[in-house]
Protein backbone atom coordinates (compact mmCIF):
# COMPACT_ATOMS: atom_id res chain seq x y z
CA UNK A 1 0.00 0.00 0.00
CA UNK A 2 1.34 3.43 -0.97
CA UNK A 3 2.37 5.82 1.80
CA UNK A 4 -0.37 8.47 1.84
CA UNK A 5 -0.61 11.92 3.39
CA UNK A 6 -2.42 12.00 6.75
CA UNK A 7 -3.64 14.89 8.94
CA UNK A 8 -5.00 14.85 12.47
CA UNK A 9 -6.18 17.55 14.88
CA UNK A 10 -7.14 17.61 18.53
CA UNK A 11 -8.52 20.48 20.63
CA UNK A 12 -8.47 20.54 24.42
CA UNK A 13 -10.15 22.85 26.93
CA UNK A 14 -8.42 21.38 29.99
CA UNK A 15 -7.58 24.36 32.26
CA UNK A 16 -4.17 22.88 33.19
CA UNK A 17 -1.58 23.24 30.43
CA UNK A 18 -0.02 19.84 31.28
CA UNK A 19 -3.41 18.13 31.01
CA UNK A 20 -4.25 19.98 27.76
CA UNK A 21 -0.93 18.97 26.16
CA UNK A 22 -1.38 15.32 27.19
CA UNK A 23 -4.94 15.38 25.86
CA UNK A 24 -4.13 16.78 22.40
CA UNK A 25 -0.99 14.68 21.90
CA UNK A 26 -2.70 11.40 22.76
CA UNK A 27 -5.74 12.09 20.59
CA UNK A 28 -3.84 13.46 17.58
CA UNK A 29 -1.19 10.70 17.63
CA UNK A 30 -3.82 7.96 17.94
CA UNK A 31 -5.49 9.21 14.73
CA UNK A 32 -2.34 8.78 12.63
CA UNK A 33 -1.07 5.41 11.43
CA UNK A 34 2.38 6.79 10.54
CA UNK A 35 4.86 9.13 12.26
CA UNK A 36 4.12 12.87 12.16
CA UNK A 37 6.46 15.04 10.08
CA UNK A 38 4.87 18.35 11.06
CA UNK A 39 3.16 19.81 14.10
CA UNK A 40 1.15 23.05 14.28
CA UNK A 41 0.17 24.29 17.74
CA UNK A 42 -2.18 27.15 18.54
CA UNK A 43 -2.80 28.28 22.11
CA UNK A 44 -5.31 30.78 23.47
CA UNK A 45 -4.22 33.95 25.27
CA UNK A 46 -5.80 32.55 28.47
CA UNK A 47 -2.49 30.63 28.83
CA UNK A 48 -0.34 33.78 28.28
CA UNK A 49 1.68 33.33 31.48
CA UNK A 50 2.65 29.78 30.42
CA UNK A 51 3.74 30.23 26.79
CA UNK A 52 7.35 29.37 27.62
CA UNK A 53 6.24 25.91 28.83
CA UNK A 54 4.34 24.89 25.68
CA UNK A 55 7.23 23.55 23.56
CA UNK A 56 9.05 21.75 26.43
CA UNK A 57 5.79 20.04 27.48
CA UNK A 58 5.08 18.97 23.88
CA UNK A 59 8.67 17.71 23.46
CA UNK A 60 8.29 15.44 26.50
CA UNK A 61 5.47 13.53 24.82
CA UNK A 62 5.94 14.09 21.11
CA UNK A 63 8.81 13.69 18.69
CA UNK A 64 8.14 15.67 15.53
CA UNK A 65 10.90 17.11 13.28
CA UNK A 66 9.15 20.40 12.49
CA UNK A 67 6.87 22.36 14.83
CA UNK A 68 5.47 25.88 14.43
CA UNK A 69 2.61 27.72 16.07
CA UNK A 70 1.49 30.82 17.92
CA UNK A 71 -0.89 32.34 20.41
CA UNK A 72 -4.33 33.57 19.41
CA UNK A 73 -7.38 35.38 20.72
CA UNK A 74 -9.04 31.98 20.34
CA UNK A 75 -8.24 28.59 18.82
CA UNK A 76 -9.92 26.25 16.36
CA UNK A 77 -9.79 22.47 16.29
CA UNK A 78 -11.49 19.11 16.76
CA UNK A 79 -13.06 18.46 20.17
CA UNK A 80 -13.22 14.98 21.71
CA UNK A 81 -16.81 14.78 20.38
CA UNK A 82 -15.44 14.99 16.82
CA UNK A 83 -16.97 18.44 16.23
CA UNK A 84 -14.84 21.30 14.93
CA UNK A 85 -15.05 24.10 17.48
CA UNK A 86 -14.03 27.76 17.45
CA UNK A 87 -13.21 28.66 21.06
CA UNK A 88 -12.76 32.38 21.57
CA UNK A 89 -12.87 33.29 25.25
CA UNK A 90 -11.52 30.30 27.15
CA UNK A 91 -8.35 28.35 27.78
CA UNK A 92 -7.82 26.06 24.78
CA UNK A 93 -5.03 24.30 22.91
CA UNK A 94 -5.16 23.02 19.31
CA UNK A 95 -2.60 20.58 17.88
CA UNK A 96 -2.44 19.55 14.22
CA UNK A 97 -0.13 16.70 13.22
CA UNK A 98 0.60 15.74 9.61
CA UNK A 99 2.34 12.80 7.99
CA UNK A 100 3.66 14.23 4.72
CA UNK A 101 5.49 11.70 2.51
CA UNK A 102 7.33 13.34 -0.38
CA UNK A 103 7.02 16.82 1.15
CA UNK A 104 10.07 18.93 2.01
CA UNK A 105 9.60 21.15 5.09
CA UNK A 106 11.72 24.18 5.98
CA UNK A 107 11.12 26.65 8.81
CA UNK A 108 12.49 30.17 9.24
CA UNK A 109 12.17 33.16 11.55
CA UNK A 110 12.72 36.69 10.22
CA UNK A 111 12.55 40.10 11.88
CA UNK A 112 11.26 43.25 10.18
CA UNK A 113 14.67 44.95 10.31
CA UNK A 114 16.26 42.00 8.44
CA UNK A 115 14.06 42.39 5.36
CA UNK A 116 15.73 43.48 2.12
CA UNK A 117 14.85 46.68 0.33
CA UNK A 118 11.82 46.16 -1.95
CA UNK A 119 14.04 47.03 -4.94
CA UNK A 120 16.31 44.05 -4.15
CA UNK A 121 16.53 41.16 -6.65
CA UNK A 122 14.69 37.87 -5.91
CA UNK A 123 17.95 36.16 -4.83
CA UNK A 124 18.24 38.52 -1.84
CA UNK A 125 14.87 37.30 -0.55
CA UNK A 126 15.65 33.66 -1.34
CA UNK A 127 18.94 33.90 0.60
CA UNK A 128 17.15 35.47 3.60
CA UNK A 129 14.39 32.84 3.70
CA UNK A 130 16.71 29.93 2.85
CA UNK A 131 14.13 28.18 0.68
CA UNK A 132 14.80 27.37 -3.02
CA UNK A 133 12.17 28.67 -5.48
CA UNK A 134 11.93 25.30 -7.28
CA UNK A 135 9.98 23.13 -6.80
CA UNK A 136 7.48 25.88 -6.00
CA UNK A 137 7.06 26.08 -2.22
CA UNK A 138 3.88 27.06 -0.40
CA UNK A 139 4.15 29.12 2.78
CA UNK A 140 2.38 29.27 6.12
CA UNK A 141 3.29 32.49 7.97
CA UNK A 142 2.63 33.31 11.62
CA UNK A 143 3.53 36.88 12.43
CA UNK A 144 3.73 39.20 15.40
CA UNK A 145 0.76 41.56 15.55
CA UNK A 146 3.25 44.42 15.73
CA UNK A 147 5.45 43.22 12.90
CA UNK A 148 6.02 46.41 10.93
CA UNK A 149 7.55 44.51 8.03
CA UNK A 150 4.73 42.07 7.25
CA UNK A 151 3.47 43.91 4.14
CA UNK A 152 7.02 44.18 2.79
CA UNK A 153 7.59 40.48 3.53
CA UNK A 154 4.45 39.47 1.62
CA UNK A 155 5.46 41.64 -1.33
CA UNK A 156 8.99 40.20 -1.30
CA UNK A 157 7.80 36.59 -1.14
CA UNK A 158 5.36 37.16 -4.01
CA UNK A 159 8.23 38.61 -6.03
CA UNK A 160 10.80 35.90 -5.21
CA UNK A 161 8.43 32.90 -5.29
CA UNK A 162 5.97 33.39 -8.17
CA UNK A 163 3.19 30.81 -8.10
CA UNK A 164 3.55 30.12 -4.37
CA UNK A 165 0.45 30.15 -2.15
CA UNK A 166 1.10 32.17 1.02
CA UNK A 167 -1.34 32.21 3.93
CA UNK A 168 -1.46 32.50 7.69
CA UNK A 169 -2.21 35.07 10.35
CA UNK A 170 -0.93 37.50 12.94
CA UNK A 171 -0.72 36.19 16.49
CA UNK A 172 -3.23 37.99 18.67
CA UNK A 173 -3.01 38.75 22.36
CA UNK A 174 -6.72 38.62 23.24
CA UNK A 175 -8.49 41.41 25.09
CA UNK A 176 -6.07 41.75 28.00
CA UNK A 177 -3.26 43.45 26.09
CA UNK A 178 -0.92 40.62 27.10
CA UNK A 179 2.12 39.19 25.37
CA UNK A 180 2.08 37.02 22.29
CA UNK A 181 4.04 33.93 21.35
CA UNK A 182 5.47 32.56 18.10
CA UNK A 183 6.76 28.98 18.19
CA UNK A 184 9.43 27.70 15.79
CA UNK A 185 10.84 24.23 16.46
CA UNK A 186 12.32 24.55 19.97
CA UNK A 187 12.27 28.35 20.16
CA UNK A 188 9.78 30.86 21.54
CA UNK A 189 9.78 34.26 19.78
CA UNK A 190 7.92 37.44 20.71
CA UNK A 191 8.32 39.35 17.43
CA UNK A 192 8.95 38.94 13.72
CA UNK A 193 7.48 36.22 11.52
CA UNK A 194 7.77 32.45 11.80
CA UNK A 195 7.39 30.70 8.45
CA UNK A 196 7.00 27.20 7.13
CA UNK A 197 7.76 26.33 3.50
CA UNK A 198 6.22 23.14 2.07
CA UNK A 199 7.35 21.83 -1.31
CA UNK A 200 7.06 18.57 -3.23
CA UNK A 201 4.02 16.31 -3.02
CA UNK A 202 1.59 18.90 -1.67
CA UNK A 203 -1.05 21.32 -2.92
CA UNK A 204 -2.23 24.18 -0.69
CA UNK A 205 -5.46 25.70 -1.98
CA UNK A 206 -6.64 28.99 -0.46
CA UNK A 207 -10.13 30.32 0.22
CA UNK A 208 -10.11 33.97 1.33
CA UNK A 209 -13.50 35.14 2.63
CA UNK A 210 -13.40 38.90 3.26
CA UNK A 211 -16.96 39.09 4.54
CA UNK A 212 -18.39 41.74 2.20
CA UNK A 213 -20.86 42.16 -0.64
CA UNK A 214 -20.69 44.80 -3.37
CA UNK A 215 -23.23 47.62 -3.66
CA UNK A 216 -23.79 49.90 -6.63
CA UNK A 217 -21.68 49.47 -9.76
CA UNK A 218 -17.93 49.28 -10.41
CA UNK A 219 -16.33 52.72 -10.77
CA UNK A 220 -13.05 53.83 -12.31
CA UNK A 221 -10.49 55.88 -10.42
CA UNK A 222 -9.76 58.81 -12.73
CA UNK A 223 -7.56 60.81 -10.33
CA UNK A 224 -5.66 59.65 -7.25
CA UNK A 225 -2.66 60.38 -5.08
CA UNK A 226 -1.12 57.65 -2.89
CA UNK A 227 -4.10 56.32 -0.87
CA UNK A 228 -6.43 59.24 -1.65
CA UNK A 229 -9.12 58.97 -4.34
CA UNK A 230 -9.58 62.41 -5.91
CA UNK A 231 -11.96 61.46 -8.75
CA UNK A 232 -14.26 58.52 -9.52
CA UNK A 233 -15.60 58.33 -13.08
CA UNK A 234 -14.40 61.98 -13.36
CA UNK A 235 -16.75 62.98 -10.52
CA UNK A 236 -16.18 64.05 -6.91
CA UNK A 237 -15.87 60.78 -4.93
CA UNK A 238 -17.92 61.98 -1.94
CA UNK A 239 -20.77 63.03 -4.24
CA UNK A 240 -20.70 59.61 -5.95
CA UNK A 241 -20.77 57.92 -2.53
CA UNK A 242 -23.64 60.07 -1.22
CA UNK A 243 -25.72 59.33 -4.32
CA UNK A 244 -25.04 55.61 -3.87
CA UNK A 245 -26.02 55.65 -0.18
CA UNK A 246 -29.20 57.57 -1.02
CA UNK A 247 -30.19 54.75 -3.42
CA UNK A 248 -29.86 52.04 -0.74
CA UNK A 249 -32.61 50.54 1.39
CA UNK A 250 -33.10 51.93 4.90
CA UNK A 251 -31.40 48.87 6.44
CA UNK A 252 -28.39 49.20 4.08
CA UNK A 253 -28.13 52.94 4.77
CA UNK A 254 -27.91 52.22 8.50
CA UNK A 255 -25.24 49.57 7.83
CA UNK A 256 -23.25 52.00 5.67
CA UNK A 257 -22.83 54.29 8.70
CA UNK A 258 -20.32 51.88 10.29
CA UNK A 259 -19.65 48.98 7.88
CA UNK A 260 -18.84 50.58 4.54
CA UNK A 261 -15.69 49.45 2.70
CA UNK A 262 -14.01 49.78 -0.69
CA UNK A 263 -13.28 46.78 -2.92
CA UNK A 264 -10.39 47.29 -5.34
CA UNK A 265 -10.68 45.09 -8.47
CA UNK A 266 -7.58 42.88 -8.74
CA UNK A 267 -7.92 41.94 -12.42
CA UNK A 268 -7.77 45.04 -14.60
CA UNK A 269 -9.07 43.14 -17.64
CA UNK A 270 -11.96 41.14 -16.17
CA UNK A 271 -15.20 42.58 -17.53
CA UNK A 272 -17.73 40.98 -15.19
CA UNK A 273 -16.64 41.45 -11.57
CA UNK A 274 -18.06 39.31 -8.75
CA UNK A 275 -17.35 38.43 -5.12
CA UNK A 276 -13.78 37.25 -4.67
CA UNK A 277 -12.49 39.59 -7.40
CA UNK A 278 -11.96 42.49 -4.99
CA UNK A 279 -9.39 43.32 -2.33
CA UNK A 280 -11.43 44.81 0.53
CA UNK A 281 -9.95 47.89 2.20
CA UNK A 282 -11.16 50.27 4.91
CA UNK A 283 -12.29 53.84 4.27
CA UNK A 284 -9.99 55.90 6.49
CA UNK A 285 -11.69 59.27 6.05
CA UNK A 286 -13.28 61.81 3.74
CA UNK A 287 -12.52 65.43 2.97
CA UNK A 288 -15.88 67.23 3.28
CA UNK A 289 -14.64 70.33 1.43
CA UNK A 290 -12.84 68.72 -1.52
CA UNK A 291 -14.83 65.47 -1.58
CA UNK A 292 -11.79 63.15 -1.64
CA UNK A 293 -11.85 59.72 0.05
CA UNK A 294 -8.82 58.12 1.76
CA UNK A 295 -8.61 54.30 1.86
CA UNK A 296 -6.32 51.78 3.56
CA UNK A 297 -4.15 51.04 0.52
CA UNK A 298 -2.37 52.73 -2.37
CA UNK A 299 -4.62 53.49 -5.33
CA UNK A 300 -3.84 54.72 -8.84
CA UNK A 301 -5.75 56.12 -11.83
CA UNK A 302 -7.25 53.42 -14.05
CA UNK A 303 -8.08 51.03 -11.21
CA UNK A 304 -11.68 49.94 -10.76
CA UNK A 305 -13.34 49.79 -7.41
CA UNK A 306 -16.76 49.14 -5.93
CA UNK A 307 -18.17 50.06 -2.55
CA UNK A 308 -19.01 47.14 -0.24
CA UNK A 309 -21.04 46.50 2.90
CA UNK A 310 -20.11 44.04 5.65
CA UNK A 311 -22.50 42.23 8.00
CA UNK A 312 -23.14 38.67 9.15
CA UNK A 313 -25.41 37.89 6.20
CA UNK A 314 -22.94 39.24 3.64
CA UNK A 315 -20.15 37.33 5.37
CA UNK A 316 -22.05 34.02 5.37
CA UNK A 317 -23.19 34.40 1.76
CA UNK A 318 -19.69 35.25 0.55
CA UNK A 319 -18.07 32.24 2.24
CA UNK A 320 -20.78 29.98 0.82
CA UNK A 321 -20.27 31.46 -2.66
CA UNK A 322 -16.49 30.85 -2.45
CA UNK A 323 -16.92 27.27 -1.20
CA UNK A 324 -19.40 26.51 -3.99
CA UNK A 325 -17.01 28.01 -6.53
CA UNK A 326 -14.14 25.92 -5.11
CA UNK A 327 -16.22 22.75 -5.50
CA UNK A 328 -17.04 23.50 -9.14
CA UNK A 329 -13.39 23.87 -10.18
CA UNK A 330 -12.45 21.27 -12.83
CA UNK A 331 -9.58 19.97 -10.64
CA UNK A 332 -11.80 19.53 -7.55
CA UNK A 333 -11.83 15.84 -6.61
CA UNK A 334 -12.64 15.85 -2.89
CA UNK A 335 -9.15 14.56 -2.06
CA UNK A 336 -8.40 17.12 0.67
CA UNK A 337 -6.85 15.54 3.76
CA UNK A 338 -6.45 18.53 6.07
CA UNK A 339 -7.25 22.21 6.42
CA UNK A 340 -6.01 25.25 8.31
CA UNK A 341 -8.26 28.15 9.31
CA UNK A 342 -7.10 31.67 10.13
CA UNK A 343 -10.05 33.79 11.23
CA UNK A 344 -10.27 37.41 12.39
CA UNK A 345 -11.03 38.04 16.06
CA UNK A 346 -13.79 40.31 14.67
CA UNK A 347 -15.67 37.34 13.18
CA UNK A 348 -16.80 34.31 15.18
CA UNK A 349 -19.62 34.65 17.67
CA UNK A 350 -19.32 38.44 17.78
CA UNK A 351 -20.28 38.66 14.10
CA UNK A 352 -22.73 35.77 13.74
CA UNK A 353 -24.32 35.65 17.20
CA UNK A 354 -23.54 31.94 17.44
CA UNK A 355 -20.36 29.84 17.67
CA UNK A 356 -18.55 27.75 15.02
CA UNK A 357 -20.32 29.40 12.06
CA UNK A 358 -17.47 29.61 9.52
CA UNK A 359 -16.02 26.20 10.39
CA UNK A 360 -19.43 24.48 10.22
CA UNK A 361 -20.13 26.06 6.83
CA UNK A 362 -16.68 24.96 5.63
CA UNK A 363 -17.28 21.37 6.82
CA UNK A 364 -20.59 21.26 4.99
CA UNK A 365 -18.64 21.56 1.72
CA UNK A 366 -15.27 20.02 2.62
CA UNK A 367 -16.25 17.02 4.71
CA UNK A 368 -14.27 14.58 6.87
CA UNK A 369 -11.23 16.87 6.98
CA UNK A 370 -9.55 17.88 10.27
CA UNK A 371 -9.44 21.67 10.68
CA UNK A 372 -7.01 23.48 12.97
CA UNK A 373 -6.26 27.16 13.38
CA UNK A 374 -6.69 30.29 15.45
CA UNK A 375 -8.31 33.73 15.73
CA UNK A 376 -5.88 36.32 14.35
CA UNK A 377 -5.12 39.99 14.66
CA UNK A 378 -4.79 40.10 10.85
CA UNK A 379 -5.14 37.37 8.22
CA UNK A 380 -2.74 36.55 5.38
CA UNK A 381 -4.01 35.23 2.05
CA UNK A 382 -4.02 35.77 -1.70
CA UNK A 383 -6.50 37.83 -3.71
CA UNK A 384 -6.12 38.04 -7.48
CA UNK A 385 -2.78 36.24 -7.44
CA UNK A 386 -1.08 38.54 -4.88
CA UNK A 387 -0.78 38.10 -1.11
CA UNK A 388 -2.19 40.64 1.35
CA UNK A 389 -2.79 41.25 5.03
CA UNK A 390 -6.55 41.39 5.67
CA UNK A 391 -8.98 42.24 8.43
CA UNK A 392 -12.41 40.71 9.28
CA UNK A 393 -11.47 37.77 7.05
CA UNK A 394 -11.46 33.97 7.29
CA UNK A 395 -8.62 32.37 5.33
CA UNK A 396 -8.71 28.60 4.75
CA UNK A 397 -5.81 26.55 3.44
CA UNK A 398 -6.92 23.18 2.04
CA UNK A 399 -4.16 20.56 1.80
CA UNK A 400 -3.97 17.55 -0.48
CA UNK A 401 -1.44 15.47 -2.36
CA UNK A 402 -0.45 16.32 -5.92
CA UNK A 403 -2.68 14.70 -8.52
CA UNK A 404 -2.20 13.96 -12.21
CA UNK A 405 -4.04 17.19 -13.10
CA UNK A 406 -1.58 19.30 -11.07
From TrEMBL:
Its main location: membrane. This is FIST C-domain domain-containing protein. Transmembrane segments: none annotated. It is found in: Cell membrane. It comes from Trichormus variabilis (strain ATCC 29413 / PCC 7937). InterPro entries: FIST_C (IPR019494), FIST_domain_N (IPR013702), UCP018953 (IPR016741). GO terms for cellular component: plasma membrane. It holds the Pfam family FIST_C. Keywords: Cell membrane, Membrane, Transmembrane, Transmembrane helix. Residues 35-236 form the FIST domain. Residues 237-383 form the FIST C-domain domain. It comes from the Bacteria. It is a multi-pass membrane protein.
